[in-house]
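A protein record in our archive is deliberately plain, so that people and models can read it alike. The tokens are whole numbers drawn from a learned vocabulary of local backbone shapes. For reference, a complete record is included directly beneath this paragraph.
>
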Amino acid sequence: MATVARRDPPGAVLLQADYTYNANGLPTRIDEHGSGAVEYKTEFEYDDRNRLIREYRYDAVSYVTVYDREYEYDQVGNRTEATYNDPEDLWIDYVYDYEDTEEYGSLNNRLMYYEVYDTDPDPDELVSTTWYYYNDWGNVTRVVTNEDGTTAYSATRMAYAANGSAVTYAIGEDWTWDGNPEHDPANYNVDYAKEFRYDGARQRYLARELAPNELNERSTVQEGDSERNQAVGGWPPPREVHGAHDIGKPDGAEERLWQV
């Protein structure tokens, strides 16, 4: 068992978490409490390949469920489904490139998108869809989410160092789009921006916040010169769905290429 505690300046325990592990070193239970009795418990279950198949959190006093989540995987370990039981009542379906190599143009166990459904209604109702874009090295360059039935989109965009492995920028974005491939997205906005720098040994020595307003006015993140990179990873369907090929180029903005 291991214990992690957070204390106030005088030293009193604000929160303590006691971890219990199985023979493979995986956590099986977390008991959380302040200075008194255990208040919450979270239990974990694994399959014979040490993959998490269930996590269950509940109030240790009233035994009311906080969440109860179950997971399924394919033969190579990709998570294919997640079921969030009562009280969350959600089901998540994950789609990978190997399921349609002609459509996605790769066979690398890459997560292409996932859909979240509300299972409380009958039939289930789509809540949101999240798409993933990749560069030629297989790094995720953009994660885009649309809440079903709305024109609102949000994204996190990553830019990489020349070595292709270290994230140098993380940008939060949002915009609106009406779903018509003939129409450009509108109301593009940079919500936040973070910069990371590394030394020769690839150890991070700097992490800083950038001014989103400055990015909105001066420039936006671009993926590169090649047609494939302009398509944000070479997968047309999501680009057609939410117009991501135009995102990041608001009218009158100066374009600046960031190495990815």
The domain at 1-74 is CATH 2.40.128 (Lipocalin). The longest strand covers residues 186-198. The two ends are 43 Å apart (CA to CA). Confidence is low (pLDDT under 50) at residues 216-260.
